């Protein structure tokens, strides 16, 4: 029985002592995911991550925007990283793949919904068990985030990046929210409630992201940022 099977068995039998023993062995699995991710992603070059819902249908306008984002980014030499799944993630990879660009997928093992899409280059598909390792890969190897409408996971990745930039834990990079109809209410809440009413952020924190409505605007914000700043590692 391997360490993962021991953990599952211990939880099933509520053998808490066994869980304490096997916790330390998880470190090696965690290390393996970090090493594999660092080895593969460090060789790819500048990339931009595209985020959004796995549930977005191909007929949805946001799907088409994500395809166009992938195409525009690869035209300028950027690779595209996504969470590897269907929906918006598939669309971003599709745009990169169809334009002959680098198409990367950081897939996560989930009991539902997630399976990697067909537009990821096999050598650039990574599989993760741990969300926190996957998020480190996004932060470390992305030179920008383009965030389309999504659910809890999309929000998690967005605010993780904003927090790390705000606190100076990673270098600043451009973050673009696409879809004012979707994100406008959140942006208004950040400004009116979080900032002006409760004073829980600074006014300049609202400049950490840009709200746009088209793929052209999203890509152009990325390009303008790096016309001004030199590309460099985020960590």
UniProtKB/TrEMBL annotation:
<dbReference type="GO" id="GO:0009691">
    <property type="term" value="P:cytokinin biosynthetic process"/>
</dbReference>
<dbReference type="InterPro" id="IPR005269">
    <property type="entry name" value="LOG"/>
</dbReference>
<dbReference type="InterPro" id="IPR052341">
    <property type="entry name" value="LOG_family_nucleotidases"/>
</dbReference>
<dbReference type="GO" id="GO:0008714">
    <property type="term" value="F:AMP nucleosidase activity"/>
</dbReference>
<dbReference type="Pfam" id="PF03641">
    <property type="entry name" value="Lysine_decarbox"/>
</dbReference>
<protein>
    <recommendedName>
        <fullName>Cytokinin riboside 5'-monophosphate phosphoribohydrolase</fullName>
        <ecNumber>3.2.2.n1</ecNumber>
    </recommendedName>
</protein>
<dbReference type="InterPro" id="IPR031100">
    <property type="entry name" value="LOG_fam"/>
</dbReference>
<keyword id="KW-0378">Hydrolase</keyword>
<comment type="similarity">
    <text>Belongs to the LOG family.</text>
</comment>
<keyword id="KW-0203">Cytokinin biosynthesis</keyword>
<dbReference type="GO" id="GO:0005829">
    <property type="term" value="C:cytosol"/>
</dbReference>
């Amino acid at each position: 029985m391997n360490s993962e099977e021991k953990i599952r068995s211990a939880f099933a039998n509520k053998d808490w002592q066994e869980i304490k023993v096997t916790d330390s062995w998880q470190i090696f699995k965690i290390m393996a995911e970090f090493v594999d991710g660092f080895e593969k992603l460090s060789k790819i070059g500048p990339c931009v991550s595209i985020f959004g819902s796995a549930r977005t249908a191909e007929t949805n306008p946001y799907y088409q925007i994500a395809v166009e984002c992938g195409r525009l980014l690869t035209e300028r030499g950027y690779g595209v990283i996504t969470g590897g799944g269907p929906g918006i993630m598939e669309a971003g990879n599709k745009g990169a793949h169809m334009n002959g660009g680098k198409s990367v997928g950081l897939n996560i093992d989930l009991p539902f919904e997630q399976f990697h899409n067909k537009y990821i280059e096999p050598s650039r598909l990574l599989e993760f068990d741990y969300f926190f390792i996957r998020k480190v890969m996004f932060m470390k190897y992305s030179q920008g985030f383009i965030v389309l409408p999504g659910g809890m996971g999309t929000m998690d990745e967005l605010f993780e990046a904003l927090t790390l930039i705000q606190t100076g834990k990673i270098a600043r990079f451009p973050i673009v929210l696409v879809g004012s109809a979707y994100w406008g209410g959140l942006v208004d809440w950040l400004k009116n409630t979080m900032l002006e009413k409760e004073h829980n952020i600074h006014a300049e924190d609202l400049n950490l992201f840009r709200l746009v409505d088209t793929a052209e605007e999203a890509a152009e914000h990325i390009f303008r940022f790096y016309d001004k700043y030199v590309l460099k590692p985020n960590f």
